[in-house]
Amino acid sequence: MAGDDGQAEERKPLMSGEGQGLVLPPRQRNYSPWYQWMTRLSATTHEDPLPEGDLAALPRWLDGRRARLRELLGPTPTPVPLNAETLESVECDGYRRDKIVFDTEDTMSVPSYLLVPDGRVSAGAAVLACHGHGPGKSQAVGLEHTDAPNSDYALQLVREGYIVLAPDLRCFGERQDWNPEDHYACDTNLVHAVMAVTLFTAASDTRVAAAVVSGYFSSWAESHKMPWNMCGSQVAWSMLGRLEHEDLGALVAPRPLLIETGTEDPLFPLPAALESVRRTRLVYEHDHAGDKLEHDVFEAGHQWHGVAAIPFLNRWLSHAPTVG
């Protein structure tokens, strides 16, 4: 018989017949998956953590982290021709918004918005604007709005003179399959594949010259303590205890990295973010790049802040704003 907490009640010892002694109770049984996850989480330690006391060992440790990241992300899809196509082009106030589509795998195309500021005729700084949870690329470019504040950052960046690519990630926007109302598409898709977000991208692809990670860099272990928080877009197989946020931040070093953290963010709590940033900073300082790691702590919840992001990108991408 189970109690209200999902655990089976423990039976009392029973006396058997004469000469047979005491019958011991069975082990306490648990029926709650959540209780099991939390029990395992409490027993999980970070395997091979950053060697804070021996920074001379950093190169070997970083090589191990790169190998671990490749292992957990799985095989890289075979490259295919982009086969890019422009579907529409709209002249907007100070910029042009092209709707484009290109191929990333042999059976997968990605619809995106490409924002080009007026007067841009040569190569220069460009930004990949990955959206958060919500409508997808249309929110990042300001075509759709939700109660998430300040989420049209692709539009803000093009007004600063950047070329901006805003794609739909898997399970969002035009890449969202029909789902029953009681199914969360991001988690359903995880059954079939694992997708990457900005922190993964910057850690694994050195072509990223500078990265802004908003409302995320903290700790998977701490975030896992929040019920109904983790979703498929954050998950790599067997990552708990084997690869933490600070490990990925160390792999971005010495390239510029800005981390945004809201003081009231319940999903990625500030104390864990402060500690993870502190440890990541050890790697940056060891590489004589301490000024390339910034932590913008702002008074709000889980959201894009953006106040420090544009000056940060302007500085490290050598971009002169062209706001007119």
Overview of this protein structure:
- With 324 residues, the chain is of the alpha/beta class.
- It has two domains: 49-74 and 194-324, Rossmann fold; 77-183, Rossmann fold (3-Layer(aba) Sandwich), CATH 3.40.50.
- Helices cover 27% and strands 17% of the residues.
- The chain has ten helices and ten strands.
- The strands form three sheets. Strands 3-4-5-7-6 form a five-stranded mixed β-sheet. Strands 8-9-10 form a three-stranded parallel β-sheet, with helices on both faces.
- Helix 2 (58-73) crosses helix 8 (245-252), helix 6 packs across helix 8 and helix 8 packs parallel to helix 9 (270-286).
Care to give the gist of this entry?
The chain is of the alpha/beta class.
CATH domain class name of the largest domain: Alpha Beta
Number of strands: 10
Computed Rg: 24 Å
Put simply, the count of helices is: 10
CATH-derived topology of the largest domain = Rossmann fold
Q: Quickly count the domains.
A: 2
CATH architecture identity of the largest domain: 3-Layer(aba) Sandwich
Order of helices and strands: EEHHEEEEHHEHHEHHEHEH
Shape: globular
Q: What is the average of the pLDDT values?
A: 84
Write the layout of secondary structure elements.
Elements: E1 14-15, E2 22-23, H1 33-42, H2 58-73, E3 85-91, E4 95-105, E5 108-117, E6 126-128, H3 137-140, H4 153-159, E7 163-167, H5 185-190, H6 198-204, E8 211-214, H7 220-223, H8 245-252, E9 257-262, H9 270-286, E10 293-298, H10 309-316
Parallel strand pairs: 6-7, 8-9, 9-10
Antiparallel strand pairs: 1-2, 3-4, 4-5, 5-7
